[in-house]
């Protein structure tokens, strides 16, 4: 059964709100353990989101540790809500993180990294379908950002929940995932990689 983005947004926001702190930690660990087997570890620049705790997003701290342990260049972003653009910064020991007005943890400043340098992007999402289409918060930040990345940049969704059959209302500007990692399995959508 296919559902439109608006309904799916509401459905998955509600489902996430029902998750306890312990469940979020447990599911985030399951996702990280599966992510280890993704064919991405030969890459250098990894973009990751810092979770909005109030939205009960996946705790990406464990993936951050994994990336640091593998000596990867870790990139995080700051959002400009007027232009819907994201500025990317290298995460270092000196990076100061501060929550913005939407409770999104962001780097205050730092060494800027162009989108074209990024090899792998971990994407926050509310829902995804069996074709790799995703539903985010609907602001278009990631779609804008991904159009600036090189074509071979690997796009990986992270989701607490399994896929919907089909998302209605997908349009050309929506950029599909290459992989999505859930607590149960890795979904592959772009077998060319």
Automatic annotation (TrEMBL):
Organism superkingdom: Bacteria
Keyword ATP-binding: yes
Pfam families: 5-FTHF_cyc-lig
InterPro entries in the cross-refs: FTHF_cligase, FTHF_cligase-like_sf, NagB/RpiA_transferase-like
Any one GO biological process: folic acid-containing compound biosynthetic process
Keyword Signal: no
Residues where ATP binds: 5-9, 134-142
Binding residues annotated for substrate, in chain numbering: 50, 57
Keywords: ATP-binding, Ligase, Magnesium, Metal-binding, Nucleotide-binding
GO molecular function terms listed in the Swiss-Prot or TrEMBL record: 5-formyltetrahydrofolate cyclo-ligase activity; ATP binding; metal ion binding
Reactions catalysed according to its record: (6S)-5-formyl-5,6,7,8-tetrahydrofolate + ATP = (6R)-5,10-methenyltetrahydrofolate + ADP + phosphate
EC number: 6.3.3.2
Cofactor: Mg(2+)
Family: Belongs to the 5-formyltetrahydrofolate cyclo-ligase family.
NCBIfam families in alphabetical order: MTHFS_bact
Name assigned to this protein: 5-formyltetrahydrofolate cyclo-ligase
Species in which this protein is naturally found: Flavobacterium faecale
